[in-house]
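# nightly structure sweep
# worker-07 picked up a monomer target from the shared queue
# config: single-sequence mode, recycle default, output format = structure tokens
# input follows
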Amino acid sequence: MIRFLAVLSGLVLTLAVAILLPWAGIPAAVLVVLGWRYRICAVLAVLVAVGVLSFVGTGAMEAAATGLVATTYLLNTATVHAPAGVVPTTVPSVVGAVLFTGAAVAASAAPAHWAWAPLATPILVIVLYAWVIRGLASPVSDEETA
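# output follows
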């Protein structure tokens, strides 16, 4: 199943690159096929996709979809030769990838025209992450440890 998902996501990644920039689909396809055997080629295939996204200047939805496919491709390709029992595509990984992709698309669609917004965003993300993690981790009292 992992090999099937690696092949499928690699083909979709190649298709996404070829739709955006047709001549870049050929090196992407070669790197995707080599990526099933050599991990560095899988990373290079994703870098070709990122380069195509940057060169063409796509919108947020195209970039988000390609990023989601690239994430799936890297997750599954990295574990094709992993020991038995390693499962890269779990419910938490899929839900996390989809939710963060949705959050990125929503953030890019927000009409923020403040000059300081790009500087405040990373700080806000760190604060929100710490707030969520603090809420998920329950403090251990002395009574529970005894």
